[in-house]
# Entry
Amino acid sequence: MNWQPPRYKHAGFTLVELTIVLVIVTLLSGGLMMGLSSQREQTMNKEAHQQLDLVRDALLGFAMSNGRLPCPANPNIAAGGIEELQLCAAKHSHLIGYDCIAADNQCVREHGALPWLALGLKESDAWGNRYTYFVGYEFSDPLIKAEIDAGRRTRFKLDTLGRARIQNGAGQDIASAIPAVIVSHGSRGAGAYLPSGTQLPGAAGDEAENADADLTFISHTPTDTFDDLVTWIIPTVLKSRMVAVGKLP
# Structure
């Protein structure tokens, strides 16, 4: 009988088995990462909505204290956050009939960045971009001396109408005669201004409508091409707050 050495069975993985394990690990890791990414996005959106609620409340509080909404800040500069004012030599239409003096001011613009310093808020939204802010002159210009001498306590009256409108993306108005609108440009940030003062490119469609400095704004549920978050000052709420603090009628 010929003697043969014992044969030992190898306990390692074959290449096929290793490949299958790696594929499974990759799939599990990818699913985990997608889950974490989705969870993070939900958290960011929740934070953004909460911040917009704070912005709206701060604007109403400013109006109750000052008799007007704040002017927009200059979005194009790195150091900003304050109301952008100018002498009222070239008077806005609602000041016709009043004479300005050297110390009288009015807003420079209707569209710009939220004046975060004037409101005591953070500069940026949840994604690090500035808020876009529209407010009509008829709700934001400081009272001039001649108006104060005539007994005015607020820039606007009970019958003052806003000019902005909010649409649903299908051409239908969901709100109209709006005094002020605030936009967070979402995770993509297209059309938003950075803290550096640079405007991010790439806004298209409904997102472009929220970045083009006109009187129409779009608000609807997020899609693959739209993630803006929009809130606005409701005229009846604004005016009722002013009545409550004795500034109107």
